[in-house]
Design brief:
By secondary structure, this protein is mainly alpha-helical. It has one domain. It contains 4 helices and no strands. The protein is elongated, with a radius of gyration of 17 Å.
């Protein structure tokens, strides 16, 4: 009973991570459109590289989670979202409290806020997904898919 509950929670978290991924990709598509119009991008990262890296990293990762490869998904997911926390979220927050404030952000201020919101949703989802997957794997004592 408990395992079914956790499995359904994990599937829900992965569905929410897919929604998060689509929103993150759309954020960079809008940034790409802005660059094409001669405006500043929404992020300091190159939009095309960001879209490619999001797809290359997260699509296989979410597939592993969906197929219930729990330990692999849990560990890689925790690492990837931990890196996102330290390379994306914390620097943006520190920038806000710097003497220059958001004006120090090379891209548009709306991009700064968008990045904070998108990462602020994605990072907790990622860590919660890792927690659920590793807890289920610990109880099952295996990394094999759960039928």
């Amino acid at each position: 009973m408990e395992d079914e509950k956790n499995k359904s929670r994990l599937k829900l978290v992965i569905k929410l991570q897919i929604v998060w991924l689509v929103i993150a990709i759309l954020f960079h598509v809008v940034s790409l459109i802005r660059v094409g119009m001669g405006l500043t991008p929404l992020s300091e990262a190159a939009p095309t590289n960001s879209i490619i890296s999001l797809c290359v990293i997260y699509i296989p990762l979410l597939y592993l989670g969906w197929k219930s490869h729990l330990v692999t998904y849990g560990l890689i997911n925790g690492f990837v979202f931990g890196m996102m926390l330290f390379t994306g979220e914390i620097p943006r927050i520190m920038m806000y409290f710097s003497p220059e404030g958001i004006a120090a952000y090379q891209a548009a201020a709306i991009g700064w806020l968008g990045g904070i919101l998108i990462n602020g949703i994605g990072i907790p989802l990622g860590f919660y997904g890792s927690f659920l997957a590793l807890r289920m794997a610990w109880r099952k004592k295996s990394n094999h898919p759960i039928e």
